[in-house]
Amino acid sequence: MSGVHLVWQAAAVMVGSGVVGLVYKGLDRKLAARMQARVGPPLRQPFLDLGKLLMKETVVPRDAVGWLFSAMPFLAAVASFTALLYLPWGPFPPILRGYGDAVLVLYLLAVPALAMALGGFASGSPLATVGGQREIVMLMSYEFPLAVALVGVVWRLRALEVGPAFSLATISANPLWTAVGPLGVFGLAILLGCLLVVTPAELSKIPFDIPEAETEIAGGLMVEYSGTYLALFYLADAVKTVAMAALVVTLFIPYGIAAPLGVKGVGGQVLDVAFFLVKVFVVMFAAVTTVRVAMARFKVDQVVRGFWLQITAAAVAGLVLLVLDKAVMG
Amino acid sequence: MAEAENTFRIPIGPIHPALKEPIRLSFQVEGERIVGVEIRTGFAHRGIEYMGMRRNLIQVLYLAERICGICSISHPIALTQAVEQAAGIEVPPRAQYIRVIISELERIHSHLLWAGVAAHELGFDTLLHLTWKVREKVLDILEELTGNRINYAIPIYGGVRRDIAPDQHPKVQDTIRYYRGLLDELLDTFLRDPSVEARTRGVGVLEPEEADALCAVGPTARASGLAKDVRQDRPYLAYGELGVKAITPRDWGLEPRGDVYDKIVVRLLEVGQSLDLIERALLEMPDGEITSFPKIPALLAHLKKAHGEGLGWHEAPRGEVIHYVRLEAGVEEPVVWKVKAPTYSNLMSWEPMFEGQEIADIPIIAASIDPCICCMDRVHMVRDGSEATMHKEELLRLSREKTRRITDHGSRITGLGGVR
Fold first, then answer.
1. How many folded domains does chain B comprise?
2. The domain containing residue B232 runs over which residues?
3. Which of A41, A239, B16, B256 is a good FRET partner for A154, with 20 to 30 A between their CA atoms?
4. What is the pTM of this model?
């Protein structure tokens, strides 16, 4: 693949997913508002927010570690956007396939959280420090079930010998549901459930918005961020939401719609991309929007206990079922 | 490592999203655990009592109503009773019932407001929006009966300013029916939601002994199991005839633990209690005059001649509110006007409630006593342009000086404010 071609594709994916991320954020806010018997903001509100933030003054607190404080928003945004380049987009394989696999995506998704925590610590505010501690604790608690879910899928795929199992292109091209037996389907369903629980935690949304907890620590990590820096975090959040939902879709629902409908060529590709975006939206709606209107915020110790005990136990059970399935199916 | 090195200070307030009004809580925390709290008040001090002592009693009434927007009938009810006692004014029975009806409607709107705030503090915004949506109905009926959603301007010395007309009865009954149907749903969504329970059970516990020793009042004390309610203990207005029983979590079949959950239980059950009281008051309300002084000039003339002191009390939504006034013959203004709001009594119970809890619990514990800072802030200490603290001995010395000043001269107090 030529370099120019690569740059062109990467730019398209980044801009496209940035726009999609903001549109979905708008949809999320509008739908949440409707479920709460409110009118809600207009759909384009995230764009207006972003534009406004970019115009605002960017303040660096006097007590902050300046360079760290300023670098972290960029790191968060870059990591979120980079994760997109390793994810398949419906019919299109990942742009940077061959340069990184599913494990790299996991790392890239963890980077914005780390960047926010570091930025919070660097800001010198006690509220942000508490937020930073909470973010790190959260990260340590949800990463394990997340990794188990991913490893479960990859391990079962490897047993099928269809290619490099850790490659998201392979995962996306080989839906597991039909390839495994009844035990495996059950195990996969459990892993999907775990991943859906991890999603709002990964994205710091209610009931897991503990690091930001507006009523407790006044925005926590974000309390000292303003202007362009806050806009970058805002954008990173929108993009990360899409990336996380896209990862769930890739791992568990990588089906296209064009082939069953018999649409071929460019039309089929457009249809598949559209279907992919719909699936991403459904995942976001199920795991983020509905959950955040239906629950109260947890405390950090409750989250840690829940993820380490119940969710990890469930994920391991799913993994064991997949292993048993392999033994049964041969 | 020494413990002091592990702890750091988290300031909450005077301006903070967890607080609806300015107050400063300074927490000493160890990781997420609270090891100490310092409370500083006085940010919402407006000198209302001072202003009142320079105005005639009718004007004071309107001022009393504006001590707080949410308790905007509790303060006038306590004040009118104090003045009526001082001036020897009788209140017609019908007026007493009308005061009861409006104040119970206020309790419903205040408790629903609180429930929404509590949900918001827990990060459960859906519950906030739904609770505040249903709260509109009681504000509508208050507007229908009094002309205003808040600041009803209903009590006046010797009675009330507006009657409840016969054609308004069905509207009130409609509202009662609406909330009766809704109450079970509200109790269900708040008390049976696992995430609400996880955040409120065992959080911000106030032991009954502590509640008693710290003189907690209102739902804060009742949630700890103290059957303490001014309407029951020292009946006034028509409450004696209506018969009020203090509500504790036992009425919901639970042994009181004094945590935030119990405070939700008590407040929501009190909404039901208020509905019953309004319904009965509406039925049993006798016909007759609504005020013993239909003409304001006659009332003012009577008040100017009055000499004596009076104490008025009322069970506000947040607990017992007390107004003390002293009138002197020939003077239009009250010579002394002292307000004790429920939050003043409840503030001290914050300390045992916060002890050992987590940072995440701060907003809901702070909200659990339903603090009304503007009701409470009656003093602000400033010395040489900065904050000052006063200790017991100094306060005692100052109050003795003031007593001497009053008894020596026997007339109006001029040197107000205590510290110069």
1. 1
2. 67-376
3. A239
4. 0.81
